[in-house]
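Can anyone check this?
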Amino acid sequence: MPTISRFYGIVIRMFYDDHFPAHFHAVYNEYELVVGVSPLQVLAGRSPNRVRSLVLEWAGAHLEELTENWNRCRAGQQPRRIEPLE
């Protein structure tokens, strides 16, 4: 599962050929969120509220890149890195 971004201890990943809907995984310590891209929403998992807020803020700023990476992964291509939240 390629890592596409890292910030504040949060690791953002996408699986190759993963199930629909378009989504990514955000891992922070023992927590994991599965976040849908369109619409932007937490589909599964749990995390501290601050982590959830940071992940959603980052994703909102990178929706186009996330969609492009989803399409690349579905096609078996390496996703591109996305700038971290600053």
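Reply from J.R.: I decoded it. DSSP finds two helices and five strands in the chain.
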